[in-house]
Amino acid sequence: MANFSTHMVGAAATGVVAAALLSSAHLLTVQSVPAAVGMVALGGIFPDVDSDNSDSIKLVFNLLGVSLAVPVLVALIPTWGLLLSLVAMGVVFAFVRYGIVVPFRRFTVHRGLFHSVPMGAGLTGVVALVCHSAMGLDMEQAWVFAAMFLVGFMTHLVLDEMYSVDLANNRIKRSFGSALKLFEGDEVPYYVALYAAMALSLYVAPSPEDFVQSVASFDVRLLPDEPVRELLFSGLR
Q1: Which among 3, 20, 68, 205 is placed 20 to 30 Å from 75, CA to CA?
Q2: Nearest CA to 198 among 120, 112, 103, 144?
Q3: What is the tens place of the pLDDT at every residue in 208-234?
Q4: Mean pLDDT, to the nearest integer, of 164-193?
Q5: Distance between CA 179 and CA 181 in Å, rounded?
């Protein structure tokens, strides 16, 4: 299993490449690239949110707490005033960061449902919905950021599977297949519920039609129109 730093580096590297491609295809502005890479990084650590002693669960719940607390502050300031609104923001953050995380740790198992493809797909729909409904992005841009989250999530699963293969000793570790999975036979009810939740999240999410059409018509220029030699000499003139 890859460690936390490997997941972060892998997700960041994948995010830079994905952001460069989307930027070249005019689906990301230069100003949006850092946020898009950050979304890949978030997806890259999210599958380890069910690990009791991992840095991932702390970081994910910190980000989740901030993501919920800040809108509460903004919404309450006009009626509650600054001081009471700050108190409410602190209560919301503390509830998410320290209240929810305790039962979450108790009732989740590492490399369980969160380490699965349907979980990644379901969360992608949630990200698209939040970006569109709460952050005001249009449907295409909402799915751009949702897709970046999915890229990070899948990068995490692939890295875990890669680290399950011991090339030095020519063997496959017992953990192989426990990350990049679609289903587990001994957890049928949970996976039925997970697939139902995935279908619901994708149903209520904004339509991905514009994003799919833009991706299908990708026009990324890999090489300059002019020969490299002419470009170099023209720069020296």
Answers
A1: 205
A2: 120
A3: 999 888 888 776 655 555 555 554 555
A4: 64
A5: 6
Other CB atoms closer than 10 Å to residue 95's CB: what's the count? 14
Amino acid at 24: S
Which whole-number Å values give the CA distances from 57 to 6, 73, 107, 225, in the listed order?
Answer: 16, 24, 14, 47
Is the model's pTM score more than 0.90?
Answer: no
Structure tokens at 5: 């730093």
Which residues fall within 8 angstroms of residue 166, CB to CB, at 6 or more apart? 172, 173
CA–CA distance, 7 with 54 (Å, rounded to integer):
12
Q: Are 98 and 90 in contact (CB under 8 A)?
A: no
The residue to which tokens 């994708």 are assigned: 202
Share of the chain above pLDDT 90, in %: 24
Q: How far is CA 139 from CA 42, 131, 180, 181, 218, in A?
A: 21, 9, 28, 29, 18
Residue 9: which of 121, 220, 179, 156 has the closest Cα?
156
DSSP for 194-217, written as a single string: HHHHHHHHHHHSPP-HHHHHHHHT
